[in-house]
């Protein structure tokens, strides 16, 4: 059916997406009914569900990055949340509000950004909702995954004495990297197999803020981080040269790195650092302590509290990349 | 944590929602981690997933209806989709973009609209995503449900000779009723128990359009509807007095009635009409035929094709209630 307002109606768009969506054995029925139907996860497994809503002007600038990047990021950040449970993605549901003036072109760009990720991670596009309006582009993605024991790995399992590791260099993602996060799905599954994971989170709000969530959810613990051990991304250096803040400050405070932060017992940390799973990079950044708060330890052993300047999605300004000032 | 931009940050809001959310035995972990964790559905059951994105200016007019009605409608339309599979709702995920000027007030209004529905249907609010921006209110709700055999009931099972029934009067919901749909969850479950349901859909796009989906998905069938049997809502009469269209035209074409349309074999229809399940109203409106298209039959036996003027979410104008012209 052709829509009155444009060359491509909702039903035609849905038909096209239906044709593009890869199959997944857990999806009994995808796009085309009132709801999708999923088969139960394998015996003993549980289902994880995550949803993220991305806004033009806030999480991306459509005029600068184009719809393909917006589509990629919208799906990738949800896959990152599934990775943060050490789960395996199964199906995505994509709801959009498309700017009316170029709804069809944007819809196709979004799909072009999502399809390669869906294929790489064997993820079905199992449903969604398509709207056009006079407002900016809105993309809301929900991803369902399957967690096989000992997953899901929660934020709440950290214990004093545990070691804190991250999977890559941090900071300055707003220079562009935030549009192309690499969902650490395979890395999380490999780590789950290789070590006892006490806690796992993806770095969306910034290391200090996200580690803070882990500490809060683990019963009000604290952590000490080694200033010289925090892997600093070249983007953090570049950004520091104009922001007046230090590269370390960016590595600790900037959001949207989408690396994993894992908390493991010391013996697991030693073994992981000695022989990390193939393809997984690991940096030891500090350890969990009983007293609340995050402290930064200098080479000389002196410590100072870390001021959390993570990303508050509700209060932050309109800056794309979403860093609260 | 208090947000820089306002009195209530995302984390505080999430904490509050967490406190309001009813528990559900299938939700192992709700708000507060990277993803929610659901237990597998009861043996033999499957999981249904549906998502709907609602926009200020399109699905509701926030300045006129207020955030409580917007919250109610956003959740209710998703529950209606779960009902349309004859499934039982389990958990909702609510992602919002809140207008910055009054983010907190709107968030509280949305929750006030959703909480009674969540409680009535024993639905957990298990996750979500909160953003504030300079744009209009956007609410994206995903609901997960459990379908016990013979559910889920799909759109695709209609057969020639089957009877088409609806659960209530149709048309004119744009006069206000579209904001307060009654999700027919209990009705669908009662019908599932009482009869052999070949196909089931909720009337969101309009009877002609939604029945058209059933006919398409059932292999290109058709239907004849009895003009004098279609239950016409008083709102359709009221709207007709100013629209220049007939009340029947509104009953056939208007969207967002959110009644159920069911397709059952003749013997089930007879038994359902003789003794409907308690609390369920049923109207016989026509029957399925092998030839494609929908025909409207007059009292004198003459027939005319029904022109589908359903709701196309992508192409339709900015009218709240969303009727394509």
UniProtKB/TrEMBL annotation, chains A, B:
EC numbers listed for it are: 2.7.4.16
Binding site residues for Mg(2+) 4: 34, 50, 81
Task: Report the catalytic activity.
Answer: thiamine phosphate + ATP = thiamine diphosphate + ADP
State where Mg(2+) 1 binds.
51-52, 129
Top enzyme category = transferase
Which InterPro entries does its entry note? PurM-like_C_dom, PurM-like_C_sf, PurM-like_N, PurM-like_N_sf, ThiL-like
Positions bound to Mg(2+) 5:
205
Q: Name one GO biological process term.
A: thiamine biosynthetic process
Specify the PurM-like N-terminal domain's residue ranges.
32-146
Fetch the SUPFAM superfamilies from UniProt. PurM C-terminal domain-like, PurM N-terminal domain-like
One Pfam family, please name it: AIRS_C
Q: Which residues bind Mg(2+) 3?
A: 34, 81, 202
Q: In which pathway does it act?
A: Cofactor biosynthesis; thiamine diphosphate biosynthesis; thiamine diphosphate from thiamine phosphate: step 1/1
Superkingdom is Bacteria
Write out the residues that bind Mg(2+) 2.
52, 81
Give the residues annotated as coiled coil.
Answer: none
Key words, A-Z: ATP-binding, Kinase, Magnesium, Metal-binding, Nucleotide-binding, Thiamine biosynthesis, Transferase
Q: Any idea where the PurM-like C-terminal domain is?
A: 175-297
User: What does this chain do?
Assistant: Catalyzes the ATP-dependent phosphorylation of thiamine-monophosphate (TMP) to form thiamine-pyrophosphate (TPP), the active form of vitamin B1.
* Family membership: Belongs to the thiamine-monophosphate kinase family.
Q: What else is known?
A: Reaction mechanism of ThiL seems to utilize a direct, inline transfer of the gamma-phosphate of ATP to TMP rather than a phosphorylated enzyme intermediate.
Q: What is this protein called?
A: Thiamine-monophosphate kinase
User: Taxonomy-wise, where does this protein's organism fall, top ranks first?
Assistant: Bacteria, Pseudomonadati, Planctomycetota, Planctomycetia, Isosphaerales
């Amino acid at each position: 059916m052709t829509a009155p307002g444009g060359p491509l109606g909702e039903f035609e768009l849905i038909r096209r997406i239906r044709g593009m969506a890869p199959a997944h054995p857990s999806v009994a029925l995808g796009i085309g009914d009132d709801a999708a139907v999923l088969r139960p996860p394998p015996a003993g497994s549980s289902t994880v569900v995550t949803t993220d809503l991305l806004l033009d002007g806030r999480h991306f600038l459509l005029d600068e990055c184009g719809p393909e990047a917006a589509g990629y990021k919208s799906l990738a950040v949800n896959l990152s949340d599934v990775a943060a449970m050490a789960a395996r993605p199964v199906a995505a549901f994509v709801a959009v509000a498309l700017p009316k003036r170029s709804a069809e072109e944007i819809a196709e760009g979004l799909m072009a950004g999502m399809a390669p990720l869906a294929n790489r991670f064997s993820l079905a596009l199992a449903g969604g909702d398509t709207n056009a309006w006079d407002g900016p582009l809105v993309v809301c993605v929900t991803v369902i995954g399957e967690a096989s024991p000992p997953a899901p790995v929660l934020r709440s399992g950290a214990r004093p004495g545990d070691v804190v590791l991250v999977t890559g260099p941090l900071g300055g993602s707003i220079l562009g990297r935030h549009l192309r996060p690499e969902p650490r799905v395979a890395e999380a599954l490999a780590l789950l197999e290789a070590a006892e994971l006490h806690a796992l989170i993806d770095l969306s709000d910034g290391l200090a803020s996200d580690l803070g969530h882990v500490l809060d959810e683990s019963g009000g613990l604290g952590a000490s981080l080694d200033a010289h051990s925090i892997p600093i991304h070249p983007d953090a250096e570049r950004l520091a040269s104009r922001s007046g803040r230090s590269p370390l400050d960016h590595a600790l405070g900037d959001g949207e790195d989408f690396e994993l932060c894992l908390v493991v017992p010391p013996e697991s940390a030693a073994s992981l650092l000695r022989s990390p799973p193939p393809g997984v990079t690991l940096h030891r950044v500090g350890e969990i302590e009983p007293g609340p708060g995050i402290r930064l330890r200098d080479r000389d052993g002196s410590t100072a509290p870390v001021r959390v300047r993570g990303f508050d999605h509700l209060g932050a300004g309109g800056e794309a990349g979403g860093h609260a000032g």
